[in-house]
Amino acid sequence: MPGELLVEGAAEMDLTGPLEQLRTDGYARLGKVLADDALALLRERAEDLMLGRVTYPGMFFQMDSETGRYEDAPLGLGWQGPSLAYRKLEKLELDERFRAWLSNPLFERVARSQIDDGVVLYRAIIFNKGSPGGSDIPWHQDGGKLWGLSQEPTLQLWTALDDAPVDGGCLEVIPGTHVGGLVTQLGGVIPPDRVGTATGIPLAARAGEVVLLHNQVWHRSGRSRSGHRRLGFSVCYMSAQTRCLRKKRAPRKFFEVFAVPVRNP
Question: Which of 6, 28, 122, 223 lies at a CB distance of 3.0 to 4.6 Å from 133, suitable for a disulfide?
């Protein structure tokens, strides 16, 4: 991707505070670190992919529900033709623009601070809440048996590609909930009786901002405003020692982002 990816000074920013907050609260803000020109190119490419102007064999697509209910999103349909109503686009590492962003030097510093090994991707994914409003995503954790891995990943970086205001589909978290681990062995959506009356804090974000997330912190997002699209790009990094445990198909091989660091003897 041509041009500068990061705003000036972002590659060398002090990560002490954000990494400590990630440890204690399960989330932290890095602020606006994606340069405007690069942001425009990523937005353009997201639309290219949804409209079929750029294609990659093996990409995953899921349409959004027409009702706004997470439970009603269709499963297993894949590509349904040109549309800006896709809820998820996965395997973004196939695209050179998104691959450049997820391997930028700031993200490498964050990943290596948490992973003492080679770093691979579990997923690189766009979450889209289209202009009708998208879906209301319930409280959930990213992990558990649903993910089918030999060890639990703990690090995600979420980039706002559009503004995500408080009432416009922003992330919400319940700080510190990652400390208790997975609520269920299966992972995913947290049972309503365990959520109870818990309320989260909204993480309103401007386009170009990045948020760090621990996979097991409880998080959700509401619908976007009518007429307001909300694109977010999420990357989950994990150790290269992680293995896929699925049995019905051949085990997944994970894309290497950052090689095993060279250590001095």
Answer: 223
